[in-house]
Specification:
globular; Growth Hormone, Chain: A; single chain; 82% helix; mainly alpha; 403 residues
């Protein structure tokens, strides 16, 4: 079977999922102040609350959606989610109160939980040795969405804070029509299994998947790393305005630049890197680069220098797909949806904690007048990634000792 069209649909779906995060970032400060009033610090706090609501839904529904796709197939789960996503963007477009914006983020979090199903589909059609590289394609698609979201939000934001959402609803509808015609089902009777609430709830999924050899420690690393990496979507708009005086257009452009380099790294360069140094060394390389990049962003005071650091920060993005490849090869074929659902929930827990942690850190260190330190959240992220390196290296050392 020619997989090119189905893979194209999967990658577009992931792009739209990640646009759900990036689309609102450039207009978030203005949108919240338009709806709710208050100053920039207050808008940052509300932005953290909305991002947390989005993440709570991903946490609760990641394993549910993953297990539903193991039972009923990837195709119906993905297509239904796109339909709901399109309707949700229309609701966000007309939201005139903070509670309606909050409701939109709740529904958006549920539809974005299909990231796990998209990853499971990619695992279904990949050979074991191809999984890490193909998960890199998923990461690249996320990077493209990270580009398009801020660009759409920044450019269309010039026509009003609602215009980006109408555009996103249109894109979701078009992708739904595309997927209806090109997406075959990959869940066969050989790997289909009954739906179980015991496995579908997040705690049950963690227990079942975490019991596989070596996955427990990798899941911990995945969680801490996700908290650290979320500093970008949580803080960048506020950090850029506070430190460099950037407006929505420049914030959108800088995020787009970041996403482009991530897409290049994960979509193209990750394959030769994996062939050259292997998955475990790729994880350590990515984590090490992130420590350097986060530390630099904490202290840089020139916006052009921050932009010049973008290629370095993108190199760190290889850590995620490499870890995902290691974990996917450990799980069996009929556990791929469950595994990806558990990983979605792990990332969701991180994004429940990270927006509040990072925005509150930003608020605390920017409320002191002359002692303002808007880069504090990036320094915190550097410390968290250093902890990831220690845990991951200890796991490899323990494995070699047992061998």
């Amino acid at each position: 079977m020619d997989n090119r069209l189905p893979i194209t649909f999967i990658l577009i779906t992931v792009v739209l999922d990640s646009m759900g995060i990036g689309l609102i970032m450039p207009v978030m400060p203005a949108l919240i102040r338009e709806i709710h009033g208050g100053d920039l610090g207050n808008a940052a706090v509300w932005g953290g609350i909305l991002a947390t609501a989005f993440a709570v839904m991903q946490f609760l529904f990641g394993p549910v959606v993953g297990n539903l796709s193991d039972r009923f197939g990837r195709r119906p789960v993905l297509l239904i989610a796109l339909l709901v996503m399109a309707l949700d963007y229309l609701v966000m477009a007309v939201a005139g109160a903070i509670w309606l914006l909050f409701l939109g983020r709740i529904v958006g979090g549920i539809t974005a939980a299909t990231h796990s199903t998209a990853s499971a589909y990619m695992a279904d059609i990949s050979k074991p040795e191809e999984k890490a590289a193909n998960f890199g394609l998923i990461g690249a698609a996320f990077g493209v969405g990270f580009v398009l979201g801020p660009l759409v939000g920044g450019v269309l934001g010039g026509f009003g804070t609602r215009a980006p959402f109408y555009a996103a609803a249109t894109l979701a509808t078009l992708n739904l029509a595309f997927g209806y015609f090109v997406l075959p089902e990959t869940v066969t009777d050989r790997i289909r299994r009954p739906f179980s609430w015991k496995r579908a709830n997040p705690l049950g999924a963690f227990k079942n998947i975490g019991g596989l050899p070596g996955l427990g420690r990798l899941m911990v690393v995945t969680f801490i790393y996700a908290v650290a990496f979320f500093v970008y979507p949580a803080i960048w708009a506020y950090y850029g305005e506070a430190r460099f005086g950037w407006g929505p257009g420049m914030i959108g452009a800088s995020l787009a630049m970041f996403g482009i380099f991530i897409a290049i790294m994960q979509g193209v360069l990750i394959r030769p890197i994996l062939r050259k140094i292997g998955e475990r060394n790729a994880v350590l390389l990515g984590l090490g680069v992130d420590v350097v990049a986060f530390t630099a962003l904490a202290f840089v005071t020139n916006g052009w220098i921050a932009l010049a650091l973008t290629p370095l920060t993108a190199v760190g993005s290889i850590a995620g797909p490499a870890m995902q490849g290691i974990m996917s090869r450990t799980a069996s074929d009929d556990q791929q949806g469950e595994l990806q659902g558990a990983l979605t929930s792990i990332n969701a827990i991180a994004t429940i904690i990270a927006p509040l942690l990072m925005t509150q850190t930003f608020w605390y260190f920017t409320s002191g007048g002359d002692s303002s330190f808007p880069g504090a959240p990036f320094l915190l992220s550097a410390v968290l990634v250093a902890i990831c390196i220690a845990i991951f290296h200890a796991d490899r050392t323990n494995s070699q000792t047992k061998t």
